[in-house]
Every structure is written in C-alpha cells, then in structure tokens.
Design goal:
By secondary structure, the chain is an alpha/beta fold. The protein has helices at 45-53, 109-116, 120-123, 178-191, 198-201, 204-215, 221-226, 235-255, 266-270, 273-276, 278-285, 291-294, 307-322, and strands at residues 4-11, 15-23, 29-38, 66-71, 75-76, 80-81, 90-91, 104-108, 126-129, 139-144, 148-156, 160-166, 261-264, 299-301. The chain has 2 domains: 4-119 and 306-322, Nucleotidyltransferase, domain 5 (2-Layer Sandwich); 125-301, Hexokinase, domain 1.
C-alpha cells in the first residue's frame, strides 16, 4: 500500500490551522507537520493559502492526495461557506481552491470535531463524568470558542461513521431565573444584541459579559480566565460552569448521546475548571424526567487544540478508503 498524504485545515474565527497527515501502510494516521496562521490578517481564503505556501510547511497543498477543509460556518452544497465570524467566504466553485488537489472537500468545523472523536485524540479524551458507552450509540460533540459549535456522529456499517452538522449555537440560550433574566437584559444593553444565543453566552465573549455583570469589572476573556485559579470562590466560574452544563445537558438529550458527549473548543480546553466545577455536573444531571438517562451518558473533554485537524484527516482517510 502506497503512503497517502492528506492536507487537513481547520479555519476558525481567530486562527486557521493546517496539518500534513500521512496514512502509513498499516492504515494509521500519522501527523507530520502543523502550521497555525491568524485568520483575521488575510482578506480571502486564497490569500490564506498563499500565506501557507510562503511558510516552511512540509506539504504543498496541491500535492496532497486529498484535502479536507473544515470551516466555522454552515456549508452549502458541499462547496460554499460564508462563516458568520469571518469577513470572507470560501467558494470552491469560484476556483478558490486552485492551490488544492482535485479531491478537495469542504465541511463544517464541528463535523470535523465529530470525526475527531473516533481518531487518536478522541481515544485520549479526558473523562469528566462517568457513564456507560453504547458501542453503536450516537455521539454528541459540542464546544465553545469564538462561538458555540455542535455536531453528531452516527455509526455506519463497515466501521465507518457519518457526521451531521448543526448550527444550534445560534439558538436562544435558556435563562431560567430572575437573576439570569437580569443578566440577559444586561447583556442586551451592553452589547446591543437583541438575540442572546448560546454563541454569545458560553463563548469567550460570554465570559467577558458574565464577569462584567457579576463582578462589575469589564475584562477581556483571557483576564477573566486567569481569575478562575481562585476556584469555587469565583462566582463567574460558578455561573460559567452552570451555563456550560446546561448546554451540554440539553444537547445530550436532543441527540440521545448514548455513545458519549464530547466537549471540544478553546474555552473548555483552556479552562477545564469549568467542567470540573460541581455546578457543571449538577446542571448536566438536572432533569426531573431524564436524570436517570443523563447519569448513564459519559462526558469527555478533548483538550487537544488540533482536534479539528485530526477529524478532517479522519474524514479524508475514510473517503480514500471508500475510493
């Protein structure tokens, strides 16, 4: 079996990641090289590829056997995406992928995260809440960074998998108490946003507004995160854990994640205290009708920030094997 090369890309609102993978003769994915580039410093996807080619990256994009580009936005017709938090679009129909191989695929970034659950990074994910995995059960994956992403992964015959995209992060966040409603109004007033969605609450910017509301300090998300070392004395951490547990519980129920719920994204990876806080566990299990079911769903943290690349490469490998 000849060695195959895969170009994997994960285009996010803040950073764009690229990776060179190879499939060894035993059929194992091997990571050869990675390169991170700032998304906001280019004006187009073509310019981003040109920037990549100008680096010492080990694989010329058009020399790969297959390329899989994951992007933080909905993908239309398998070839176009206008990401909501990126100032430019990606359109393979306009030959923007001239520097990519003939076999080039565009997928949602959390579709890639879903496939990552069955890659090496998924196998090494950190167990947050215990449970019992159903071998062929649906996997739910979600995670917050610049926004909140969601996807599901279903098993297919012949040890293959199908990831299904979602834009559930744009749905309204469920506030449920008077003080939470006060936070919603505060967020609306300070941000000018009428629709307070999951994207705005559990993301990095959500930490900023949450701390501003609770502590009266307007700090950048990274400054808020630094305060989490105070542990459970931090009211911001307690609320962040509660809110993250809520979106995880709701999504686990929506997709019946008997195969496990996997959490990705920079917020949890950089702030695991959110998931290990007691409020996360309490909120995840808090259901008067489905608490017994939730108690059996294991929750994992994928803290490898290249997980989207592994997922894109896993999908590319699956396509190559399918022929």
């Amino acid at each position: 079996m000849l060695t195959k090369s895969i170009l994997a890309a994960d285009i996010g609102g803040t950073n764009s990641r690229f990776a060179h993978f190879q499939i060894d003769p035993e059929g194992t994915l091997v990571l050869v090289d990675t390169k991170w580039l700032p998304t906001t410093e280019v004006d187009s996807f073509s310019q981003l590829l040109a920037e990549l080619c100008a680096t010492d990256f080990s694989l010329a994009p058009d020399k790969a056997d297959i390329a899989v580009v994951a992007v933080a936005g909905p993908v239309e017709h398998g070839s176009y995406s206008a990401p909501p938090y990126i100032s430019w679009d990606i359109d393979f129909r306009r030959n923007q992928h001239v520097k990519l191989p003939h076999d080039a695929y565009l997928i949602n970034d959390f579709v890639a995260q879903a496939y990552a659950c069955r890659s090496q990074v998924g196998e090494s994910a950190r167990n947050i809440l215990a449970g019992e995995i159903v071998a062929d059960g649906t996997i739910g994956v979600l995670g917050a960074g610049t926004a909140l992403g969601k996807a599901t992964l279903a098993s297919l015959p012949d040890n293959r998998f199908l990831a299904l995209p979602s834009e559930g992060g744009h749905a309204y966040f469920p506030f449920i108490s008077l003080r939470e409603f006060a936070f919603q109004e505060f967020y609306q007033e300070k941000s000018g946003q009428k629709h307070i969605t999951g994207n705005l609450v559990v993301s990095g910017r959500g930490l900023r507004y949450l701390h501003w509301f609770l502590a009266g300090e307007e700090l950048e998300p990274r400054e808020v995160s630094a305060r989490f070392t105070e542990g459970e004395k931090s009211e911001t951490l307690a609320w962040a854990a509660k809110f993250y547990g809520r979106v995880c519980r709701d999504y686990a129920l929506e997709v019946l994640a008997f195969g496990g719920l996997y959490i990705a994204g920079g917020v949890a990876a950089k702030n695991p205290e959110i998931l290990t806080h007691e409020n996360f566990r309490h909120e995840f299990l808090d259901s008067p009708t489905m608490g017994h079911l939730l108690a059996n769903i294991p929750v994992f943290l994928i803290d490898n920030q290249d997980s989207g690349l592994w997922g894109a490469a896993f999908y590319g490998q699956q396509l190559l094997q399918k022929g």
